[in-house]
Amino acid sequence: MAKLTSEQRRAVIVMAGLRVARDHGLWSVTHSSVAKRCTVPTSAPTVKMYFGTKAALWSALIDADDTGEIARVAQAQGIPT
Hints:
mainly alpha; Tetracycline Repressor, domain 2; 5 helices
């Protein structure tokens, strides 16, 4: 299997994060939970390398969610968007 580019790895992480957020809510999105849901082997430190904080990870997911549902839920729960 060829090594993923930085953009591909970031996309894999974001897609995994969206799955976690949609299945369990934004509060369940952590570097570790996202790493476990990636479709290619990914560690929590790798997720943290791309998104240094939980807030940065959440922000990327809100931006990537084309339904707007994650942003609506985050706002309802008092999570800054």
